[in-house]
Amino acid sequence: MKETPLSNCERRFLLRAIEEKKRLDGRQTYDYRNIRISFGTDYGCCIVELGKTRVLGQVSCELVSPKLNRATEGILFFNLELSQMAAPAFEPGRQSDLLVKLNRLLERCLRNSKCIDTESLCVVAGEKVWQIRVDLHLLNHDGNIIDAASIAAIVALCHFRRPDVSVQGEEVTLYTPEERDPVPLSIHHMPICVSFAFFQQGTYLLVDPNEREERVMDGLLVIAMNKHREICTIQSSGGIMLLKDQVFRCSKIAGVKVAEITELIQKALENDQRVRKEGGKFGFAESIANQRITAFKMEKAPIDTSNIEEKAEEIIAEAEPPPEVVSKPVLWTPGTAQIGEGIENSWGDLEDSEKEEEEEGGIDETVILDDTKMDTGEVSDIGSQGAPIVLSDSEEEEMIILEPEKSPKKIR
Predict the structure, then answer these.
(1) Can you say how many angstroms the Cα of residue 266 is from the centroid of all Cα atoms in its chain?
(2) Rounded to whole angstroms, how far apart are CA atoms 96 and 126?
(3) Which end of the chain, N or C, is more open, meaning fewer C-beta atoms within 10 Å of its C-beta?
């Protein structure tokens, strides 16, 4: 299923707002959306919310044989999934160009930057090493997937704990969490991606574009950087030509944003670790705010039910009487008329009409009103039900006969 394209009016509105330095969600040009990090019950599980974009990260490990050319290094594997749950435009069971580009960018950002000490993952050189697998699942798509995915990946890796092992000769012993405390990974730095959207061939710049802004942008620049202002990777897409000053400007902005995000990640990890040590409640269920499970759930308000009759009498006494009581709320105006007194219509009853025709021998009785003039505003009553009504025009003496279950006929 293809995504619904933007109309020309929406496109012009978005571009005009960007020219006036305004955004739909009220942010400024260099503002990031709110970032919220929550952890699961197990180590290495987290959900990162970047505005309405949500990414679930899960880290797992297993002992495998190392690669032949790197016998003393562990293996890192990243996998990002885009399902139809996040957006209808994503097709299941097929790797799109966007998915391939995002996976490659994540590998360059996290694996090629050497943010994790892979040599510390070696158990027995050439025989047993740890394979760390990072699975990322996009839960909701509202733009800037790569930034949310990079934050979720590094948070999950920092939060993950692998089982402890011991080696005695050729025997490798794997301990459970009950026997020995799990061991955290050795992480040198935390690279984070920051996306910049360019409009009108680089004239206008926005940080952290949302889904609608991504549709009208001309190009995208992604800079992966750590808090030490070291650029881990940089990628430009969209076919735009950027000047050297523009790239330097974006790198300075990225340095500020990465420092803020890194501090937020460290605070979230410290809070989770403190809660686990104190024996408090943790997990996704505890991170949900109270009274916020459903959108329509409201807080209970106490109501005083004492002295209801006295309060009702006071309200009635203070209330103003109605200005005028109308017995019949129907007001006749020039150009309107009514036929009958609202008696139940029997025209739709086919069985009764057929019985009447059989009893009367199939002869239709007509009531002709020749000398009656039906002016607008007059009300005339027809007593017989189901009988045809004939209205005459005095000027041309034209009769219009309305018979039950038949179309109108004209008789001159």
Answers:
(1) 28
(2) 36
(3) C
Separation CA 332–CA 312 (nearest Å): 38
How many Å apart are CA 197 and CA 220, to the nearest integer? 5
Q: pLDDT band at 146, cuts 50/70/90?
A: very high
Other residues' Cβ atoms within 10 Å of the Cβ of residue 381: 9
Q: What is the CA radius of gyration of the chain?
A: 38
Among 184-193, 296-305, 403-412, which is the least confidently predicted range? Answer: 403-412
Identify the DSSP state of 119: G
Alpha helices, DSSP H only, in 78-136?
A: 97-106
pTM exceeding the 0.70 threshold for the entire prediction:
no
CB 160 within 8 A of CB 45: no
Q: Where do the DSSP E strands lie in 27-163?
A: 35-39, 45-50, 53-64, 75-82, 122-124, 128-140, 161-162
Quote the CA–CA distance of 330 and 333 in Å, as a whole number.
10
- 125-139 pLDDT, tens digit each: 888 899 999 999 999
Higher pLDDT, 336 or 192: 192
Give the per-residue pLDDT at 309: 81
Torsion of the alpha carbons at 143, 146, 152 and 153, rounded to the nearest 10? 160
**2-16, 56-70, 257-271, 337-351: lowest mean pLDDT where?**
337-351
Query: What tokens appear for 102 in the block?
Result: 């995002």
Of 81, 103, 101, nearest to 90 (Cα)?
81
Residue 213 contacts residue 206 (beta carbons within 8 Å): yes
Helix (H) or strand (E) holding 237: strand 231-237
Measured CA to CA, the distance from residue 156 to residue 80 in angstroms comes to 13
Is it the case that residue 366 has pLDDT exceeding 70? no
Determine contact, residues 193/55, Cβ cutoff 8 Å: no
The span from the CA of 366 to the CA of 345, in Å, is 18
